[in-house]
Amino acid sequence: MTTIPLTGAAVLRSGLAASAPKPAPQQAAPASASFHAHNPATGAALEPVFHSATEADVDHAAALARQAAPHLASASGSQRASLLRLIAEKLLASQPQIVERAALETGLPPARLNGEMGRTVTQLRLFADLAAEGSWVDARIDEAQPDRKPTPRPAVCSMLRPLGPVVVFGASNFPLAFSVAGGDTAAALAAGCPVLVKAHPAHPGTSELVARVICASVAELGFPDGSFSHLADAGFTIGSALVRHPAVRAIAFTGSTAGGQALMRLAAERPEPIPCFAEMGSVNPVFILPQAMHARPEAIANGLAASFTLGSGQFCTKPGIVFLPRHAPDSFLQSLRSTVAALPPLGMLTSTIATRFQQSLAARTQDAGTASVFATAACPPKATEGTANAATAQATVFHLGLEDFLARPALQDEIFGPTVILVRYDRAEQLAHAADRLHGQLTATLHADEADLALAAPLLAALEARAGRLVWNAFPTGVEVCHAMVHGGPFPATSDSRFTSVGTASILRFARPVCFQDIPDPLLPPELQPANPLGIERLINGVRARR
Amino acid sequence: MTTIPLTGAAVLRSGLAASAPKPAPQQAAPASASFHAHNPATGAALEPVFHSATEADVDHAAALARQAAPHLASASGSQRASLLRLIAEKLLASQPQIVERAALETGLPPARLNGEMGRTVTQLRLFADLAAEGSWVDARIDEAQPDRKPTPRPAVCSMLRPLGPVVVFGASNFPLAFSVAGGDTAAALAAGCPVLVKAHPAHPGTSELVARVICASVAELGFPDGSFSHLADAGFTIGSALVRHPAVRAIAFTGSTAGGQALMRLAAERPEPIPCFAEMGSVNPVFILPQAMHARPEAIANGLAASFTLGSGQFCTKPGIVFLPRHAPDSFLQSLRSTVAALPPLGMLTSTIATRFQQSLAARTQDAGTASVFATAACPPKATEGTANAATAQATVFHLGLEDFLARPALQDEIFGPTVILVRYDRAEQLAHAADRLHGQLTATLHADEADLALAAPLLAALEARAGRLVWNAFPTGVEVCHAMVHGGPFPATSDSRFTSVGTASILRFARPVCFQDIPDPLLPPELQPANPLGIERLINGVRARR
Questions:
Q1: ipTM topping 0.90
Q2: Tens digits of per-residue pLDDT, A347-362?
Q3: Full set of structural domains in chain B with CATH
Q4: DSSP 8-state code for residue A181
Q5: DSSP SS3 for B483
Q6: Which of residues 63-92 of A touch B (CB under 8 A)?
Q7: Which one of A498, A500, A518, A541 makes the best mutation probe of the B interface by having the most chain B beta carbons within 10 Å?
Q8: Is A316 a catalytic residue?
Q9: Which of A294, A379, B92, B463 has the fewest CB atoms within 10 Å distance of its CB?
């Protein structure tokens, strides 16, 4: 395997000949700050130096995206699909190099990263299929009724059209599937929107390698330069400038509550407010009903331990709160305690995340009382002065009663890392009320047996109003990429519960309906022409048909 | 016809026995302010006195709506349809009384109000059909693949579920079709959301009569009390309190830019932000291309005069800017000028709107120069001191060159009333650039002939990015209620261009997708059960089918 040399360029775009391993002109600008990636397993800085984009870079990239927008909007679904498929193909061709760099920058094991690359490629191809098939545009045709009284009815038709330039923020915890060529980028390009990626500074080399794949694909298929831009920055300046730029039409973000809420405010305070889809994570409550608890205590304990420590607990779908009967079998508690106690310190994505985890854990211990610590794994070694330290965390389980839990709203705050709270209830009838008190969630999970069904029905009804996805006898970590997936949920899980950020329906974030009244057939988009040249499904006079 | 006595109650709800013509208990509260409707044709106050709701009323109504939400959410589409159809039936039974009161309160002619009642009933029945048919929920089913490697695929299905309590603000200019039982209420109830109406204070009697129809329908069909509430207020306190209430889940508003933007801010600044759909109107540009101008100057002039003065120019789809060739035929200009000059003062909805129109007209005359006034109708008589005055306005046409227009962004501000700006262009090639400079619009219209088609194509492409509806050789006033309609558009036309507020797709404002993973069949909503008991269309493994 040949390692691909990194440029550390502040900006990557097809027109900048990004694949050449030489510094881009932006690097010469004196205002351009520089930064390094770090290996979280050792704390060591990684070469090369990366350069932060400037506000002038943002202006230029946004102006090019604005110019590219009509071209991408008028590209056919098949043309957009070709771009997505070429990106997928080129990613696979560079997979060893990308995974090698990603492993260095994130500390994630290569097996996980190879799996994530598979998911990334699957997403790109799923959106390619969606764009090529074409029916996602919700074409609607109401035919004219020239003889209607008292006034004739005009011919009215409508379809979803792209919003325009979309800013995508790369996520720290999925350096491939929710970053430069992740689901947001795939959905936006499939919708016909130019994409401006603000790379996550924790994995700039991975981001550069992926961005260069996209730039090369854009160039190879002759899409305009502004179809895709990649901007680096170690701080918040460039992200804020992108969100405020008048040419930008939508924001997609996956990350922390604080970060997402800051972007929501920026988007709402613009002279022309724009949609901001922020997926900010949640605590993903798990409800273990009495019969399930007694029927398979060890299986649930093992599943829970695996789920809340998967990826070192750095998933937005990590279960953070588990409701279980006060008189849970000893085997459940013993199994969970011994599994957790035996865990080594778990690698974290960055030293910042590791530090924040320790601070949050300390605050929670103080808030809930030290007696609330039910089980904890081996603590990471203390840092020796003057030496870099590995970013690690100890898996930790808290436990307390339902009333104590409900009295402390801060316990509902997400802690990003391997920790979970066990909440003991006396009567399962209390759970629907507890569910009503929960903040908005990405997921809610029930463990239930046949004899629990009567309890489960009202609980599910209550949870439906609080979560985007309801899971049965499984764990919420793992988000299937498919048509029916909803990776969303009421605030603060996301900024807008009406949308999902995973699955084919996530394309709806980046499109708006446009209506054509009595427009002559040759001027209509093919999706709305009477002959239906693309053969898509349409709603014709209220009836769905493929004609 | 028997006039129905009005109560002037601050709050109407089925549980308050609202149909009895006696003061509701809220009226006795000392904090409750009182107000009157006024006849805009005479300025006279109309009986009876109306009472403003209190913040305690808001708390109570919102709490009841929260309680009602799960009941409405679990009501079948057919049950929701029955409610909408009963409201329509009862509205028709009270139509003479409602129209009589609405004519007094708004000055709108009975013929127009009877037409608006027809539209209101049509909307209710359209949403009833949509709810009863049921496929609008976008049911998606991805079947399990237990043998998939490396991990089995779970069964995942999803559908749109109601958001919860929706606050609807009645509009001044459509006392029936965009008010208490208007499109927003119909869409929200069809989606399964309780509705809290903040009545528009300009037509409180009309609002009360319609609200009592809805309350009676809710009671007759046994829906819970909180399914619908109607709150009166002459000021902004109650509207703000409703938007801020934690039980409220979405806002629907049709009205001014200032009002809509205030609600957007309130909704975004809540501890838990909620979707706010504000339709704030626009100037609906009309582009007359050279050949069309020369082929039928008088027809276009007459159509324009009729369109910008329809309803005294108090439509959000009123054409406010018309682009026409500098060398337009004299017959166009003469025809427009003489038609406008011959118009009598036009009745306005309220004295406040009439006063604001005069102020805006004066500011525009100053901004664009007095020479810009191309034609004006007879001015309303000056008010005599001490006497009430009719609320009227004089139709007024401005004209200026394209460069002058583009140099004055304030000319893009909507003036609510019978006025339009003619903008003269030298070359039709300038128009796509001008279109790029326009603010977001509900509509954009082209008048074009065969020989204009080459000019029209790039102009349409530019306008698509700026408007929700593109109209060909007609005028934008008049919004067809159908499946394909888009009454929406980029900010500032609306708060979110991804939604429409007219047509069946407007139901999507009030629903969110919820996903069910491996949930046992008996616990799934009928829409997602394998046997498809409702017979709706669903997306099964990516393929749409009615099975």
A1: yes
A2: 999 999 999 999 999 9
A3: 61-280+494-547 (3.40.605.10), 286-472 (3.40.309.10)
A4: T
A5: coil
A6: 69-70, 73-74
A7: A498
A8: yes
A9: A379
